[in-house]
Design goal:
Number of helices: 9
Number of strands: 15
CATH architecture: 4-Layer Sandwich
Largest sheet: 7 strands, mixed
CATH superfamily: Carbon-nitrogen hydrolase
Helix content: 25-40%
CATH class: Alpha Beta
Radius of gyration: 17 Å
Length: about 280
């Protein structure tokens, strides 16, 4: 079990981004992502998080029909403009993209992480795929993923993962200070999920929570926007609203986290609950 009492030494500025996607056009979406990295860096962000499947759009049939073109790998040269933006601004990015297991060929809905130097740092594969995603041909990831940026431990999630309280709890019990999610929440029911689930995950785990959500049409859905950051007590810290493109930029504070966790009985004594599930990790 990781040391749950360790806190970051300094604040971290994060941004949740949203923008329209071009259908299955990786180059165009990478360019949009790179522009958002630069815009977020101008606002002081150390990290930008982007929505689920942002680099292709939420286009499941198209991805499955042509995985050789639509999936990305850690060494994919199409990521170069995004890597350059990270290296030049000294900021990291978490970008939603489809991937394919090089050994089994299984498709995954993933979050690809590039560090401040622009180099590939980590990949998280969505663990809770929806029935529609499974039927389309996407498999579930085998483990959680934590990345470390300037002493802040960030647990990654993708959309439906957030609907399972134990997913965010495993991140907190694994020592994470924030739960970071890229998603496709649509107008209507998605708006209600966004407004209900994310404050609860923050308050339940006394963790900062960040949501990057689609803000326009993609596949069969129309994203409701509302990319946001919540405080460890569940209160809203920053909200991009319906801005297109938009950023929700917030400064995560160690003292705020410390105060929220001082009276959390589970995080003070992890033996009160089940152990965290295994998580891979990477330093940014």
């Amino acid at each position: 079990m990781d040391d749950l009492h360790g806190l970051p030494a300094a604040p971290l500025t994060v941004a949740a981004g949203q923008a329209a996607c071009a259908r299955l056009d990786v180059a165009a979406n990478v360019a949009t992502a790179a522009a958002l990295v630069r815009r977020a860096a101008d606002q002081g962000a150390d990290l930008l998080v982007l929505p689920e499947l942002f680099l292709t759009g939420y286009e499941l049939p198209g991805i499955v029909a042509d995985p050789a073109t639509c999936t990305l790998s850690p060494v994919d040269p199409r990521l170069d403009p995004l890597a350059t933006a990270c290296a030049e601004t000294r900021s990291a990015v978490v970008a939603g993209a489809p991937t394919r297991d090089p050994e089994t060929g299984e498709l995954h809905i993933s979050a690809v992480v590039l560090g401040r130097d622009g180099r590939f740092a980590a990949q998280y594969d969505k663990q809770h795929v929806t029935p529609n995603e499974r039927a389309a041909g996407f498999g579930a990831g085998a483990r959680g993923c934590t990345v470390d940026l300037d002493g802040w431990r960030l647990g990654l999630g993708i959309c439906w993962d957030s609907g399972y309280p134990e997913h965010a709890r495993a991140a907190a019990l694994g020592g994470c200070h924030a739960y970071v999610v890229g998603a496709m929440f649509s107008r209507g029911s998605g708006e209600r999920q966004r407004a209900t689930v994310f404050p609860a995950r923050a308050m339940d785990n006394t963790s900062y929570v960040l949501l990057a959500n689609h803000s326009g049409p993609s596949g069969p859905y129309h994203g409701c926007g509302g990319s946001a950051v919540w405080n460890p007590d569940g209160t809203l810290l920053a909200d991009a609203g319906t801005a297109e493109p938009g950023l929700a930029t917030a400064r995560l504070q160690p003292d705020v986290l410390a105060r929220a966790r001082a009276e959390d009985p589970v995080l003070v004594d992890p033996s009160l609950t089940a152990p965290a599930r295994p998580r891979s990790g990477a330093d940014l």
